[in-house]
Amino acid sequence: MRNKTLYLWVSAGCFLAACTFSCQSGSKRAYDPNNPYLPSSPLAAVMREMVETLEKEKPSRAKGEFLPMDKDLFHEIKTATPTKASDASLTFYGMADGFLGVLDTYNQSPNQVHYNALIDACVSCHQNFCEGPITRIKKLKL
Ligand code: HEC
User: Which residue has its alpha carbon closest to ligand 1 atom 32?
Assistant: First the structure.
């Protein structure tokens, strides 16, 4: 019984380590968009497009121009295939729905509070799935 519990903890630990590392190597790709030899999953490509769009738009939002966001792009996170099949879990889709709800709130009344709530929603999913890009995502806050 004891051994079995230990075994479960050890395998859960390895699983978490494997997730973290694969996602950290994934996050490095975001900083090296010029290397065409590295493969990229459809989900990673959507994530990159979201982060690059938000980075590009940050200066105008910093001046108080809170324009709505491209709903179609953000909704692609629910259909794009991830690098790791195990990421497409119930937890992932639950968090994706929560995130898209926060996006709707922002689009209905775009302002700084709702904008920062959206960035927090990116971060909370990343705390579960993909810690590598969190520092970059937090820089989007205003
Ligand atoms: C529902 C969970 C979830 C939400 C919400 C989410 N992400 Fe992600 N993100 C992931 C997962 C999982 C990956 C790994 C994708 C892969 O490797 O296929 C990822 C990968 C990334 C990457 C790395 C892409 C690469 O080059 O490998 C960046 C950057 C990123 N997300 C930014 C964001 C931003 C910005 C937001 C909010 C606008 C956001 N994410 C919202 C789960 C999420």
Answer: 47
